[in-house]
Amino acid sequence: xxxxxxxxxxxxxxxxxxxxxxxxxxxxxxxxxxxxxxxxxxxxxxxxxxxxxxxxxx
Length: 58
Prior knowledge:
By secondary structure, the chain is of the alpha+beta class. It has one domain. The longest helix is centred in the C-terminal third of the chain and has 14 residues.
């Protein structure tokens, strides 16, 4: 699918409640990777969650 078929979309983060933009470019990337769900967390909360998981495995 061409990137032009996607439009930027505003999503509310489930963790902090901040709105973030799921860009057309990111949507194209998700589709290319076969991801079917949209992101639920903003970039900051995603990174915090990843860091938390890394610390739990140590």
